[in-house]
Automatic annotation (TrEMBL):
SUPFAM superfamilies: Glycoside hydrolase/deacetylase. Gene3D superfamilies: Glycoside hydrolase/deacetylase (3.20.20.370). InterPro entries: Divergent_DAC, Glyco_hydro/deAcase_b/a-brl. Pfam families: Polysacc_deac_2. CDD domains: CE4_DAC2. This is Divergent polysaccharide deacetylase family protein. It comes from the Bacteria.
Amino acid sequence: MHTGASNVPMPSQPTAEMKAKKVAIVIDDFGNNMDGTKEMMNLPIPFTVAVMPFLPSSKQDAQLAHDKGHEVILHLPMEPVRGKKSWLGPGAITTDLSNEEIHKRIVAAIEDIPYVIGINNHMGSKATADERVMKILVEICKERNLILLDSRTTPKSLIGKLAGQSGVPYSENQLFFDDLYTYSHISKQMVKFKKLIHQRDLVIAIGHVGPPGKKTAQVIKEAIPIIQKEATFVPISQTMKLNAN
């Protein structure tokens, strides 16, 4: 009688162990009818849609993502160390603004996008390293029960430290798929992503719609079956930490 019974759990054990690993993919730059929007939205996995505020398809993309069951976060434009302010789009957070203006702009951006559960930074290598600016961001997230994802455009970012101190749930990007727009670079980044899954229990990566959008969607789509053997795709809210390491 016992012969088969003791063997029953065996096949599921490795799976359970492997499935304990989580991967979260965030796709940035929705909101401007960008290339790859349709391809990304049709990916057969949970992922997180980061929408820029005040753009032609901001509300529409957030609605579509929500209808498809994806989490929506605000992709908030922030000042970079290098680059032009004009690249940032409307309502950007820059370090020369007053506290009141920063507060006003962040709140307006949150309210522009339906279904927002959190925020990540668009660019922002200068702003995310500025304590005054980031304290205002963290404060608003605490007041509104929003989560924070640090896109990690600079190692000097203070998001994790300040969010951790304030008890705001946060997590940090570990890899960009498409910081260069070529198919070969995106494919190499996917190889790195898979290696990270072997090394860690949680891996977070960011891709983009726009110039690399269709290529990134294709690379992700092709990798899904292999990744799913090792890990579970989760929305960004399932990757949060509550205090600083």
